[in-house]
Amino acid sequence: PLSANNESRGALVVFEGLDRSGKTSQCGRLVSYLEGLGHSVELWRFPDRTTSVGQMISAYLTNKSQLDDHTIHLLFSANRWEKRSMMETKLKAGTTLIVDRYSYSGVAFSTAKGLDFEWCKAPEIGLIAPDLVVYLDITPEKAAERGGYGGERYEQLEFQRKVSQHYKLLKDSSWKIVDACQPLDDVEKQVKEIVLQHIIACQKGKILS
Ligand code: DGP
Ligand code: NA
Ligand code: NA
């Protein structure tokens, strides 16, 4: 018999990439598309700047405050932890979550500053693991050309080069890499295919199990 619980669980789909890789617009397009197909889906993003922890992060990113590298690392992680139970509730209720940045950003950006890899991963342990990670792959140089950066703390070519190198160390079997240097419409098409295929495969697996 079908398990009602398993059958209805939503997918946790995470988007990662450098600043200006196109994550935010691709996530928006994908969510509209999935909604149009009748899926229960929500767009989330980290950092979530609306919480009090998120406001501390935002102040740091806009250079209104200075924080020790370890301290800001833990705040980013805390910002994911404060959303964990809501995330679990939504997934169990059958809502698919499309999430703009998650733990991989946490590790890639902080290790790019020189913090220890294992130390950076530790506070992420116990967060809900994504079912699928879509990495929008763009060279740091191409990203920098895209209408320039918004002026936030990490939006500098030299730093993004380091982030790019550290992302590459994080790739695991849940990752799908999309060439984000392509025209936006082509990226969008590939993203839709990858995510829809994943959702369908999961549903099949659940019906057969
Ligand atoms: P965004 O709102 O997606 O542009 O992200 C803001 C910036 O913060 C961006 O440069 C990526 C960086 N970032 C996102 N998550 C984390 C994290 O967990 N740790 C660190 N150190 N940086 C992060
Ligand atoms: Na940004
Ligand atoms: Na973004």
Automatic annotation (TrEMBL):
<keyword id="KW-0547">Nucleotide-binding</keyword>
<dbReference type="InterPro" id="IPR018095">
    <property type="entry name" value="Thymidylate_kin_CS"/>
</dbReference>
<dbReference type="GO" id="GO:0006227">
    <property type="term" value="P:dUDP biosynthetic process"/>
</dbReference>
<dbReference type="InterPro" id="IPR039430">
    <property type="entry name" value="Thymidylate_kin-like_dom"/>
</dbReference>
<dbReference type="GO" id="GO:0005524">
    <property type="term" value="F:ATP binding"/>
</dbReference>
<dbReference type="GO" id="GO:0006235">
    <property type="term" value="P:dTTP biosynthetic process"/>
</dbReference>
<dbReference type="GO" id="GO:0004798">
    <property type="term" value="F:dTMP kinase activity"/>
</dbReference>
<comment type="similarity">
    <text>Belongs to the thymidylate kinase family.</text>
</comment>
<dbReference type="GO" id="GO:0005634">
    <property type="term" value="C:nucleus"/>
</dbReference>
<dbReference type="InterPro" id="IPR027417">
    <property type="entry name" value="P-loop_NTPase"/>
</dbReference>
<dbReference type="Pfam" id="PF02223">
    <property type="entry name" value="Thymidylate_kin"/>
</dbReference>
<dbReference type="InterPro" id="IPR018094">
    <property type="entry name" value="Thymidylate_kinase"/>
</dbReference>
<protein>
    <recommendedName>
        <fullName>Thymidylate kinase</fullName>
        <ecNumber>2.7.4.9</ecNumber>
    </recommendedName>
</protein>
<feature type="domain" description="Thymidylate kinase-like">
    <location>
        <begin position="15"/>
        <end position="191"/>
    </location>
</feature>
<keyword id="KW-0808">Transferase</keyword>
<dbReference type="GO" id="GO:0004550">
    <property type="term" value="F:nucleoside diphosphate kinase activity"/>
</dbReference>
<dbReference type="GO" id="GO:0005829">
    <property type="term" value="C:cytosol"/>
</dbReference>
<dbReference type="GO" id="GO:0006233">
    <property type="term" value="P:dTDP biosynthetic process"/>
</dbReference>
<comment type="pathway">
    <text>Pyrimidine metabolism; dTTP biosynthesis.</text>
</comment>
<dbReference type="GO" id="GO:0005739">
    <property type="term" value="C:mitochondrion"/>
</dbReference>
<keyword id="KW-0418">Kinase</keyword>
<keyword id="KW-0545">Nucleotide biosynthesis</keyword>
<keyword id="KW-0067">ATP-binding</keyword>
